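Private note to self, pasted from the team thread so I don't lose it. C-alpha cells:
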C-alpha cells in the first residue's frame, strides 16, 4: 500500500514551515493538515489557514469528544490534529503532510504505523536559537520555553524514520523531496 501520511517534526525555529513552504510550492498536489491550537494568532496568521484558533474550552471539548487523531501540550499551549480532515484526504487517496511536534508524531505512528516520520535537524543549537530569535514572533519567556523543549525534541529524533538537515534551505527541500519520492516508489 502507498504510504500517504507524512509527519514533519523538529524543534521550534528549525525551519519546518519554511522547508514545507518550499516543498509545497514545487509539489502542490500534497495536502497540508491544518491543526487546532489554543495559541494566540501571530500577526498575519489567519484562522482556518494557518491554524484553527480555539479557546481552551473548545479544545477540551474536542478532546472529550475524541475528535483528535493526536494532540499535545507544547510550551504552554495545546495543539491537535482533527481526525476528520485526515481521514477524508486518505479516503480520497491524497497524500497528506502533518507539521506537528514530536509527541504528536509518535502518537500518530502508534495509531498509523504506515505513517512516515521525518525530523528536521538544525545545523547547531546556536543556529536554532538565532533562527528562533530572528523570527521576532515570540517574547523572551516563550523563546526560553521553546529552547528547553528543543532539547527534548532532539532526543526523540532517533525514533523517526528519516532525519533531514536544514542548513542550506534548497538542499533541505530537495532532501525532503527525495525522501517522499523514495517512500512513494517503494510502497
Ligand atoms: P519552524 O516552522 O520550524 O518553527 P520557521 O520555518 O518559522 O521554523 O523558521 C524559523 C526562522 O528560520 C525563519 O525566520 C526562517 O526564515 C529561518 N530559516 C528557515 N530555514 C532556514 C535556513 N535553512 N537557513 C537560515 N534561516 C532559515
Ligand atoms: P507554533 O506555535 O510555532 O506554530 O508551533 C509550535 C509547535 O507545535 C511546533 O513544533 C509545531 O510543529 C507543533 N504543532 C503544530 N500543530 C500541531 C498539532 O496539531 N499537533 C501537535 N502535536 N503539534 C503541533
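Design output:
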Amino acid at each position: 500500500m502507498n504510504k500517504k501520511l507524512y509527519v514533519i517534526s523538529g524543534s521550534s525555529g528549525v525551519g519546518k514551515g519554511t522547508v514545507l513552504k518550499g516543498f509545497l510550492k514545487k509539489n502542490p498536489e500534497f495536502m497540508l493538515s491544518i491543526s487546532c491550537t489554543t495559541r494566540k494568532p501571530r500577526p498575519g496568521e489567519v484562522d482556518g489557514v494557518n491554524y484553527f484558533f480555539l479557546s481552551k474550552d473548545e479544545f477540551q471539548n474536542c478532546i472529550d469528544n475524541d475528535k483528535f487523531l493526536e494532540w499535545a501540550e507544547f510550551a504552554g499551549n495545546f495543539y491537535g490534529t482533527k481526525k476528520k480532515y485526515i481521514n477524508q484526504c486518505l479516503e480520497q487517496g491524497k497524500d497528506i503532510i502533518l507539521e506537528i511536534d514530536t509527541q504528536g508524531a509518535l502518537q500518530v505512528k502508534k495509531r498509523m504505523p504506515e505513517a512516515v516520520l521525518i525530523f528536521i535537524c538544525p545545523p547547531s543549537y546556536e543556529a536554532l536559537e538565532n533562527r528562533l530569535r530572528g523570527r521576532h514572533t515570540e517574547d523572551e519567556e516563550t523563546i526560553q520555553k521553546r529552547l528547553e523543549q528543543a532539547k527534548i525534541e532532539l532526543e526523540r529524533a532517533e525514533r523517526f524514520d528519516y532525519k533531514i538537515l536544514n542548513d542550506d534551505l534548497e538542499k533541505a527541500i530537495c532532501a525532503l523531496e527525495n525522501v517522499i519520492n523514495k517512500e512513494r516508489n517503494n510502497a
